[in-house]
Each structure stands twice: as structure tokens, then as C-alpha cells.
Fold:
Amino acid sequence: MDYIKIRFGDDFDPFDSNLERTVEGMFRSISPIFSLTERTWTPQMDMYETPEEIVIRAEVAGVDKENLEVEICSKAIKIFGSRSELPCVENANYRLAEIQYGKFERILYLPGPVVTDKVSTSYSNGFLEIRLVKQPRDKTHKIPISDG
Structure:
């Protein structure tokens, strides 16, 4: 059985180079082969919540399970990996090149605390699904007040 790597961490760096992506996107529109740095892309994701758990789905078609990793801390989850580029067809004029390749990384901040040792993942039909069990809410207890 193959496993998706899950690591536990303390905190994640929210550093995100939007300027670099913008400049690269402008030049890539001129020629899809152009790239300033190693190509990066951002997979689309859904996150929803039920009374018992938080579920995250990532659209990562074409990414091998061996190239997927998940890290979780008390506040956030980081999903990262890479998708290999298909070879260009020789003697072809590309009229459209929208499929993104290279490394990706997403950090999603969780809507509430989760039990970090009860995380499950599955990968099917190009979708990574991560299920996080919610931390039970503290129950309140009525405390009797005794006389002086």
C-alpha cells in the first residue's frame, strides 16, 4: 500500500511571491516555454466542515502520490508537491498551453482546532482528500458553591 506523507510541524511561513508569479505570467503569455524560475502552480481546493470533521479536497490530477506531501500543525495544513511536465511535441505550434507543471504549495488555515493524530488521506481520480477530526469542544461543568 502506498502512503501520502503527513508531517506535523509547529508553524508555516506564509511567504508567497505574488510579484514573481505576476511577472512570470506576463512573459508566459508571450511564450508558454518562458519561465523566470522553476515553474510553480496553484491547485484548486475545497474545504468544508461537518459537525465532526474538516474535509479538504485538492484537484491535483497528474501528480503522482509519491510527489505529494501534507504537513499539519494546530492552526494550518500545508499541501505541497510537484507535477512533471509532459514533453513538448516537436514541429508543433502551440496555440494554447494552460496546463501548469512544476512545484506547488498551499497553506490553508483551519477554522478550528483538530486532532492532529487522527488525519486520514485518500487519492483517487486526481483528487487528494484530507479528513481532519475536529477537537471536541470543552464541556462546561456546573460547580456547586459551598457555604462559608
Summary: The mean pLDDT is 83. Strands lie at 5-8, 40-41, 45-49, 53-59, 68-72, 76-83, 102-109, 114-124, 127-134. The two ends are 64 Å apart (CA to CA). The chain is about 10% helix and 40% strand.
